[in-house]
Design brief:
heterodimer; A: 115 residues; 4-stranded antiparallel β-sheet; globular; B: mainly beta; 6-stranded mixed β-sheet; 0% helix
Chain lengths: 115, 111
């Protein structure tokens, strides 16, 4: 079974631009979560989508947004990029989420560098 | 809110040494507990998990026991290898409210 895939793997942008990252979950998984990983802040939860609806949201500004499509694929968008947005963005999928026994499976991440 | 605390390291060991990485948590109710591993340049991989008190998760020689009385989920391995060098994250999931990760512990194993 294919794992979680993320595209692109690497991205370089300049301040003020916007960026869209894509995540394809494991087949059959309906919950997709996004995380930001930085050396200073560690792993921080961005948001979770289930059945095309945002179900949970972390403490990030409105510049960070996402969506999920009917095939469970998800995209994350960051507008008006700042230097501090440079990070590894990880996507994780699970069957349904919302249950403590569910396991999240992570993709390899997209490394975003903002110049 | 829920939180996870773990020793930040870095931890440096010689090959075949015994490994312990401490993890404690704060959460209401009965969360599931996880250990994830991140190798250089890669995403996170599930190492093991436990979903209720006294459960022991195990995988690839690693073990961790869910101790509710001490709110701990310490990771152990009897004999580490160079290939175990990575960053290890303890995490909890409290009924899907969202995953909470510890800061990660970098492990370096020297030959």
């Amino acid at each position: 079974k294919a794992g979680v895939t993320q595209t692109p793997r690497y991205l370089i942008k300049t301040r003020g631009q916007q960026v869209t990252l894509s995540c394809s979950p494991i087949s059959g998984h309906r919950s997709v979560s996004w995380y930001q990983q930085t050396p200073g802040q560690g792993l921080q939860f961005l948001f979770e989508y289930f059945s095309e609806t945002q179900r949970n949201k972390g403490n990030f500004p409105g510049r960070f947004s996402g969506r999920q499509f009917s095939n469970s694929r998800s995209e994350m968008n960051v507008s008006t990029l700042e230097l501090g947005d440079s990070a590894l963005y990880l996507c994780a999928s699970s069957w349904v989420g919302g249950r403590s026994t569910d396991t999240q499976y992570f993709g390899p991440g997209t490394r975003l560098t903002v110049l | 809110g829920d939180s996870v605390t773990q020793m930040e390291g870095p931890v440096t060991l010689s090959e075949e040494a015994f490994l312990t990485i401490n993890c404690t948590y704060t959460a209401t109710g009965y969360p599931s507990l996880f250990w994830y591993v991140q190798y250089p340049g890669e995403g996170l991989q599930l190492l093991l998990k436990a979903t209720k008190a006294d459960d022991k998760g195990s995988n690839k020689g690693f073990e961790a026991t869910y101790r509710k009385e001490t709110t701990s989920f310490h990771l152990e391995k009897g004999s580490v290898q160079v290939s175990d060098s990575a960053v290890y994250f303890c995490a909890l999931d409290n009924y899907g409210q969202n995953f909470v990760f510890g800061p990660g512990t970098r492990l370096s194993v020297l030959p």
